[in-house]
């Protein structure tokens, strides 16, 4: 078993890396895709960190502390969880096939047992890709746009009982939230503008 090397942490932090990760052990024809998924995970983590800074600025600009608190929780919770539950499954799927296939020359029974999680990790990675592709295609093919929304408004689509009921519930929820004053709008002085 290789020594864990991820995440790379500075020496002054008392924590140690939890995972072993080496893209060289991924078969060459899958290495590029695996690295792209890793970079996507890094982008997601960076987005959560920038969101924390934005919520911090909003809090000091007169906004509430709720969003800042949630941004801290999201960064602390979603960054490692997305690595373990999303990227690690993709990494194992690409790496698992190489390890499993090479083990067939040593012990067929053990290799067959190893084949089950390898197939499952591959299924997770494949189904994730298929789901994201379908969602993207659905969005692109739905024709959703601002001009279409404006057209529906002018033609009276808003008169539908379902649309009216949804709008009424949204308005009542907004009114109830405003009465409770749970998340006040930032208050600015004339000299701050």
How would you describe this structure to a colleague?
The chain is mainly alpha-helical. Helix 1 runs antiparallel to helix 2 and helix 2 packs across helix 3. About 5% of the residues have low confidence.
First-to-last CA distance? 59 Å
Helix % is 55-70%
Provide the structure class: mainly alpha
* Oligomeric category: single chain
One letter per element, helices H and strands E, the order comes to HHHHH
- How many helices? The count is 5
How can the largest sheet be summarized? none
Features:
flat; 5 helices; 193 residues; single chain; 70% helix; mainly alpha
Layout of helices and strands:
Layout: H1 28-60, H2 66-103, H3 108-141, H4 146-155, H5 161-180
Helix pairs in contact: 1-2, 2-3
Give the gist of this structure.
The protein is an all-alpha fold and 193 residues long. It has helices spanning 28-60, 66-103, 108-141, 146-155, 161-180.
């Amino acid at each position: 078993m290789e020594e864990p090397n991820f995440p790379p942490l500075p020496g002054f932090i008392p924590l140690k890396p939890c995972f072993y990760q080496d893209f060289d052990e991924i078969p060459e024809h899958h290495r590029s895709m695996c690295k792209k998924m890793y970079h996507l995970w890094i982008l997601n983590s960076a987005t959560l960190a920038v969101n924390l800074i934005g919520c911090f600025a909003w809090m000091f600009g007169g906004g509430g502390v709720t969003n800042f608190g949630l941004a801290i929780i999201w960064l602390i919770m979603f960054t490692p969880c997305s690595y373990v539950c999303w990227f690690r499954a993709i990494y194992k799927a690409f790496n698992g096939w190489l390890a499993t296939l090479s083990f067939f020359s040593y012990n067929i029974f053990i290799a067959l047992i190893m084949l089950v999680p390898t197939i499952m990790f591959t299924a997770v990675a494949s189904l994730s890709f298929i789901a994201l592709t379908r969602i993207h295609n659905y969005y692109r093919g739905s024709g959703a746009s601002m001009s279409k929304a404006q057209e529906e408004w002018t033609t009276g689509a808003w008169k539908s009982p379902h649309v009216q009921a949804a709008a009424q519930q949204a308005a009542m929820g907004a009114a109830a939230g405003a009465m409770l004053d749970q998340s006040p709008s930032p208050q600015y002085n004339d000299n701050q503008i």
